[in-house]
Amino acid sequence: MPRIAWFTPLAPIRSGIAQYNRELLPSLARVHQIDLFVDGRPEDFSAPDAGTQVFSAYDFVWRERERPYDLAVYQLGNAPCHDYMWAYLARYPGLVVLHDGQLHHARGRMLLQQWRPRQDDYRCEFWFNHPDARKDVAEIGAVGLLGSLTYLWPMLRGVIDTSRHLLVHNEWLADEIRETHPAASVSVVEMGVPPPAPRPDARRRILARHGISDDAVVFTAFGKITPEKRVREAVRTLSEIAPHVPAVHLVLAGEAVEYYDMATEASLAGIEGLVTIAGYVNDDEIDDYLAASDVCLCMRWPTSRETSASWLRCLAAGKPTIFTDLVHTVDIPALDPRNWSVLSGTAPVGVSIDILDEDHSLKLALRRLAADAKLRGALGEAARRLWAERFQLDRMAAGYQVAIGRALQAPFADVKRRGNLPLHLRADGTEHTGSLVREITGSEYYLRDAD
Amino acid sequence: MPIEEKGSAEELARLSAERDEADRRYNEALTKLDAAIQKPRDIPHPPPRYDEFQITPLNERWELLSLKPVERSGWMRRVRAHAWAMVAPLFERQQAFNSALVDHINRNVAMHRETTRAMETTIAFLREDHRLIIEYQNLLILFFQQITPYVDTKDRHVAGLMHGLAGGLSALGDELQKRWESMVARERRFDAQVNDVRTTLSVMQRAVQTLKRELEKLGASGATGALGAGGAIGATGASGASSSLDSYKYVGFEDQFRGSEHDIRERVAAYLPLFEGASDVLDVGCGRGEFLDLLRQRGISARGIDLNDEMAAVCRERGLEATAGDALSYLLAQPDASLGGLFAAQVVEHLEPDYLMRFLDAAYHKLRPGSKIVLETINPACWYAFFSSYIRDITHVRPLHPDTLKYLVGASGFQKVAVRFSAPYPDEDKLQPLSAKSETGKDVEAFNENVRKLNALLFTYLDYAAIGERL
Questions:
Q1: Do A356 and B178 touch (CB under 8 A)?
Q2: Do A400 and A380 fall into the same domain?
Q3: Hey, of A332, A356, A358, A360, which one would you mutate to test binding to chain B, going by the most B CBs within 10 A of its CB?
């Protein structure tokens, strides 16, 4: 049974990837011996499966030296909870599960938003990742002024060059990687989620908790309330259509952030009574909120080409969804609200919003879905079928096993390639200790690498 | 001195260093200035006021002659007068002195008063002036202290403008990315629709081909040949021509002119990736089985068909599955959609046009959807290939121009038809260009060499005779 070191955020960290791993790991732990490495004290985290053990990432190096793992798996994303993995990625090449198609924000945050910004390291890393870009671009990035332009330079090369194998959740991202890094070894495994299990009477309880009328058509947006979720646009649009449609209500089932005050926004739009900010919803209650929803808002812009697990949960729950028309989701059967034609496939699962026509399309979508229960039903049924065909958890777990197999067969990333990494990524943290040991003992024996 | 690029990292580093140095010097100067501010000092007080206490008594008492006795009668008058006469000169002198003294004192009273007032005024003025100087210095320091925030606010204002500019650029970037996203999403969807149309077209072509085949069957079963002489499969030149050759002789011909087995393996190996993941591949004209062997090594199930018995036998000896027979008949005998790929190297040039059409039609029906057909042939559009290779083989029936074969394959229902050229003519054997900088002698030499090559290719001999000798 292969031994795997698995780097991932875990609950109680409020991250979609923590929940994703909680769902995925039990089936993989049956066929692999998995040790989980987290950022912090192990006792603060709970192992998602009895067969797995949780360790601090600081313990990885000596454990690896004591008894090398067959593979390291990195659940890597663009959020701060993944930052700790960078210390191991290059030194212990493994299977990198790339949840986002760009890591520039993560690297910028790690290198620049510190007490002493490491602007030189940032520049080196940028130039390494994007040797074809004009060097001046790094200067704008170094002073934190790239803004949305950040998405143009994803800074993936370091990860790709040092991985034994890559796993991504959509074909578009895989194609992008193959095109820009022909030597990369990539598997595409569609993300999967378990079927929902709402508690009895969930809808009535949730509506009653928030004082929402039973006959209201409930639109729900899941996840942290950030500008990327296009909640402001939804609130604004809701205020415009509310007088013209039957009772509607918008539930924001996610943690609010300071800089994006939707309560005030709703108040300014005069619909504070139609908007409920439920706050952070724990994993146990997500299915209840899904059950309480008639339509789910799963919009996203800008995008890092991530696959939204909450959107898949909506599909699994048989809910019609409104989502942004993105390049990596064009194969999802959807309706265009401007003429209600089917954009792709034959059985649309939701309404796709052209980002260039966002306000207008969203208004058309909300108005129709608020009034047309039959359409909601048809979209929901198709959504459930699509989930059953493509996005079940078991399918993802099977895909993971294939990808792990490929990673196990792949050689460690070429050391020479690693040699080209910027110095700060090559450093393993023992340099200073090494210099002291050399000075005192005249030998490097004690720090000799196990491999 | 190297030229510094505007906005470069070097320039930014230099500006930053200059800024740090100026900041340091400014703070040092300000600290020194602060230390040099005057402190309030004790200004001398004015002297006590002029003592005028005795001025009035002096003025009242200086006159002595007023003491002269009053004129009365009697002896007392005479005594007094006598006494007076004795002291009067002294009194007069004293009074004169007193008068001068009091006058002097009276005259100086005003001066003393003015002096005191002047001193008081001067000291007060000095004190005020000192206070004002200190106040001014403090204001000066405050002023200098304001310079930093003033400059900072200017910096912040400029930074604010930069942030505004950056925000604008970010918004511009966002708009561009939105347009890109929308456009590429539409493009991908359009591609998918084109594929749908392609699939529909494919189905329709399949239907047309099936209809055509049914019509041909009807024609063949009729009393008169509706398809004409060319419609008879057995009358194809390929089988006729090939069957007229002794099999063993053609094996020898292949050995001598097509290249060694090793050469052919290398040549056909380039097509292997096209059949990756396939099964049930048919190699038409499999020859000595080079490609079949490569497929077997890749774990791809395959079989061969060759008109030449000897060739098929060679294959079977190597453990490969091969049948001797006519390719078209063999194909037609296969169930529809039973093949996972078709490969034919150096075959189609041996086929009569009518036979080739039927062969392609049959291949279309026998191949499974998603499988590939690969037909390699000599490129007659290459002069050398035509004259050196094509016409060497007497079993070649008709050269096929790349455009012609591409069209025929597409017209038979296949899609994504492409032409891939291989076996490039060696660069060193091509006509050599004249060197731009070489000496004239070498140019002439190169030119003459090219003329020689061209003559050898174009103007060799009009006739030839093959002469043999039996020993």
A1: yes
A2: no
A3: A356
pLDDT values of chain A reduced to their tens digit, one per residue, 451 residues? 899 999 999 999 988 999 999 999 999 999 999 999 999 999 999 888 878 999 999 999 999 999 999 999 999 999 999 999 998 998 899 999 999 999 999 999 999 988 888 999 999 999 999 999 998 899 889 988 888 999 999 999 999 988 999 999 999 999 999 999 988 999 999 999 999 998 889 999 999 999 999 999 999 999 999 999 999 999 999 999 999 998 999 999 999 998 899 999 999 999 999 999 999 998 889 999 999 999 999 999 999 999 999 999 999 999 999 999 999 999 999 999 999 999 887 799 999 999 999 999 999 999 999 999 999 999 999 999 999 999 999 999 999 999 999 999 887 766 556 668 888 888 766 677 777 777 787 765 555 554 4
Cβ-count burial of B158 within 10 angstroms (0-12 exposed, 13-18 middle, 19+ buried)?
exposed
Residues A441 and A363 both lie in one domain = no
pTM of the model: 0.65
Domain membership of residue A59 as a residue range: 3-101+156-192+395-449
* CA–CA distances in Å: residue B164 to residues A342, B130, B158, B175, B434: 41, 50, 10, 16, 60
Same domain (yes/no): A27, A90: yes
- Inter-chain CB proximity A327 and B188 less than 8 Å: yes
- The nearest CA of chain A is from the CA of B279 a distance in Å of 22
Chain A neighbors of B179, CB-CB under 8 A: 356
Helices (H) and strands (E) in chain A, counts: 19, 15
Residues A308 and A350 in one domain: yes
Q: Count of domains in chain A? A: 2
Q: Are residues A361 and A222 in the same domain?
A: yes
Closest approach of chain A CAs to the CA of B425, in angstroms? 29
- Nearest by CB to residue A147, choosing from B7, B166, B179, is B166
The C-alpha of A102 sits at a distance from chain B's nearest C-alpha, in angstroms, of 14
ipTM for this model: 0.86
Chain B neighbors of A173, CB-CB under 8 A: none
